Fold this sequence. Notes:
By secondary structure, the chain is of the alpha/beta class.
Amino acid sequence: SSGINAEYGGAIAAGCCAVVKPSELVPNCSALLAKFFREFMDQDCYRVVEGGPDVAEKIMDFRWDHVFFTGSTNIGKKVAVKAAQNLISTTLELGGKSPTIVDQTANVETAARRICWGKFINCGQICVAPDHVLIHKSRKSEFLTAVQKYIKEFFGDDPSTSPDFARIVNDRNFERVRGMLKGGNVVVGGQVNAAERYIAPTVVESVGYGDPVMQEEIFGPIMPIMEFDDLGELIDTLKKQEKPLVTYFFSTCKKNMALVERELSSGSLSINDTIQFLLMPQVPFGGVGNSGQGRYHGKASFDTFTNYKSVHVRDPGMEWANDLRYPPYKDSAFKTFLYDVILYNSADEFSGAKKVICKALKYALIAGAVSLVAYQFNLVSKFQDYNFGVESLQKIKDSVSTYLNV
Length: 406
């Protein structure tokens, strides 16, 4: 799992026993994690279980208190279905096609540098990597020039020889990503080497939503570039797509920032940077819709693995004060009066002094209840701010005065 420290750290901090099942796609990391857990963790409380999908399915047969899954949307749906059979709560961190928008006011040099870093780090195999770039047509040429410059600056003339450029994790994903090169026009990179599972940092333009590279999360070093003319129209288009794990937006216009924040739904929104927000423990992280559910990182990880239980404790004394709530409700004159006046509001059936007394007592009881609630929740000082309590009490007072003058 990509966020193993945030996930498992939260479980331990919350006092949970837990089992980790690392991805079988990274066997070396899985083996190392299992080794560390055997050496440094209490095996009665914390275990690592290795294996493939068959092991994961067997694990899901147990009735866990909570399941945290990181992976694809398709597998996430299967996990959710399996968990639902035992009503197990889940946190799903699933990814998706995170759009990266660069408007006409953006600092293009900075945007290109930060986008290139976020896109090509670990060969694009990060759940929050910028998936595709949507750039204002007036800045596209400038952006492409800057991207070419920074790819060369980061990885040299031949990225295949760079110690800082990774490889695709396995053959199956290599073929999947290579298939995305079909369609569009490759303007940077495009070189592949199946023996090394190498795909060069690649930029593709003239891409449409129907092309292979736009059908699923890329999770590889391919950067499709699409241009737009009007931000409002682009937002309308993006609203028709699945909700991503993160939306990246590069701009210096606060009005446009507010528009994107208000109109686009995504797990997170990062303005004028990529990836970095993921490293901030004070920022809860997670998806929405197809990109996942739930939040973690920092205290949010603790909350994820905590079941909040409400506890109500009362003093057993002064039970006489509770007589009113117990039936029968018409076994005394006092209960009969409250039953008729408060529950059925029948004071209007009375006349003369009896009517005045009933009305006055009714409103006095209401005023007392309001005051008690206000005191209980420490809202007295806030009544004036909310324009609620003071006005209500004044209306009660005026009503009682009116009836007393009848």
